[in-house]
Amino acid sequence: MNNLKSHLLVLLAACAAGLGCSAGCHDPQWMSGGAAIQGNNGASYQTALRVAGRQYTQEAWTKADEEWLRREEDGWMYLKYGKGLSISLVPEEFNRLLHHTTETQHGRVARVYDIVTLTVPGKLTNTTYFHVTRARYVRPRN
Fold first, then answer.
1. CB of 119 within 8 A of CB of 99?
2. Which has the higher per-residue pLDDT, 88 or 127?
3. Residue 142: per-residue pLDDT
4. Cα 50 from Cα 58, distance rounded (Å)
5. Torsion angle, CA of 78/31/127/106, rounded to 10 degrees?
6. Where are the domains of the chain?
7. Taking a C-beta distance cutoff of 8 angstroms, is the pair 11, 79 a contact?
8. How is the beta sheet containing 49-51 ordered, strand by strand?
């Protein structure tokens, strides 16, 4: 039940940010179930937060999927850091403090990470890693 509440809070924070809701916002049926973001603390590649995998991996990764994932990541960051800052920010203003990049770590198996950096001048710089390999995976067609 806590995962459901957490997911709903993230969704509310994203919608309150004025980001709008594309087709994937209310109906992330492509997810494999459970909370979209789970796990560790996200402070490094080794402790990256895991993003759920897609149910229909044969379908191409779309702009709507990308927007939905970004809203999830931004909402997680806001819930974790936005309320604790000593400055008054609504989610939309908070999201302007975030910088997003995507990196692939090559090894025995390639892994894809979204890296979100929060910078509050003179107060805080935080980098959070989201392991998104399963979410972004597209199975090759035969």
1. yes
2. 127
3. 62
4. 21
5. -170
6. 2-21+34-136
7. no
8. 37-38, 49-51, 124-131, 111-120, 98-105
Phi, psi of 41 (to 5 degrees): -110, -10
- Beta strands 49-51 and 124-131, pairing class: parallel
* CA 70 from centroid of its chain's CA atoms: 5
pTM, rounded to two decimals: 0.74
Residue 100 bridge partners (DSSP) = 116
Confidence of residue 33 (pLDDT cuts 50, 70, 90): low
Three-state secondary structure of the chain? CHHHHHHHHHHHHHHHCCCCCCHHHHCCCCECCCCCEECCCCCCCCCCEEECCECCCCCCCCHHHHHHHHHHHHHHHHHHHHCCCCCCCCHHHHHCCEEEEEEEECCCCCEEEEEEEEEECCCEEEEEEEECHHHHCCCCCC
Cα dihedral 84, 13, 66, 62 in deg (nearest 10)? 170
CA distance 67 to 19: 9
Which residues lie closer than 8 Å to 53 by C-beta, 6 or more apart?
Answer: 31, 32, 134, 135, 137
